[in-house]
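Quick one: examine the sequence and fold tokens given here and explain what the tokens say about the fold. Here goes:
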Amino acid sequence: MQKISVPDYYPKFVCTGSKCEDTCCSGWWDVSVDYDTYQKYQQNKQPELAPLFKLAISKNTLPSADNKNNFGMMKMQPDGECYFLQQDKLCAIHGHMGAQGLSDTCRLYPRYLNQFGSQRENALGISCPEAARLILLNPQPIQFIKIAPDPAIDDRPFTSYRFPFQGEGDPEQIAVLNDFRIVIIAILQFREISLGARVMLLGFLLEEVNEIAFSKDFAHASALLPTLESFIGMLSRPAQLEAQFAQIDPNIPRKLEVVTKLIEQSLTDRASVRFQECLLAAAEGLSAGNESATDGAMSRRYQQSYEAFYRPFFHNKEYIFENYLVNQVITRLFPFTRGAYLDLYRELVCNLSVIQVLLVGMAAKHKGLNEELVIQLFQTFARNSNHNRSHLDNLIASLRAEAQDSFVHVMWMLKETER
């Protein structure tokens, strides 16, 4: 079987089981059950499991369901916990039936099993605390290696994301599009410029590629090669890129308004306890405990916390954000798998900005940051946004310009402080 391309952190992952501080067996997740596993559960006669299967497993009746991967659904308890979660924080299905008794969703999490052309690519999502630590805390840039398939994982008929959607596509065009992804990652890992400048440059790259790929004259992906070469050449001029980023006008009050709305909505939604801890700490930190704080007072508080508490922690740890962005690119096959390039970029920038603002607020509350707090925010934010998208969709839509809508109109969110 063909070897699988994975980030270098992937082989190091081991589930921490009952020691996990945010078990994947709770949190009102939408857990799909594949057809084979659904049939296995329906036929199960074990006295410990059969009543729970009858209570918690049902056929998926949603129009979006596919008959193979999402044939059934697993219902959660009112408090968000899985019916099969035991007091020892382990899974009753796994305990009685072994790993082979788990559905694809439960068996594979937090893995992403992607298909890009003929290449199989696996990665991990940061909504799992242990995966988040492996991915985010490594100061070295994420590298990619080839590993032999694991039959227990890779023999499952499951794919998280696939490109192209039908078949493997033209190998020559797929190769060029893979070069496009390589350039994206090279930009995000280019440490001679600030993270904001890197994300700005990514926006400009996506804009140019978008114009070419969706023009009436576009016939083959090879038309993108001059643009890709041009952007690689730009990396030889870091000072010029940084100066260009410096020209972007910040808008801290609007940035705080956007994040405040997220906090308010998330606290009324079914956010996990760990995520609520982060949101409440950020809200208190930004308002200094004064719920009626003016926009100006909150902006000043933000600037003060950024300089006093946030920057000292992150001045030599920007790789945490870099690793987050690179992992988003590889787990989602960015920018090919969902929506228009501009919408995907807008989401990436919005997620990055929200995380930064929340961390500044948390830093104000705690008078500083540490790795434990940072991992808690990244992990719980990913868990909340990846599996409950409603709170982000409206927020991202609000960033659309009223007139001309382009990549540059969201770049103000990349600026963390006023000039």
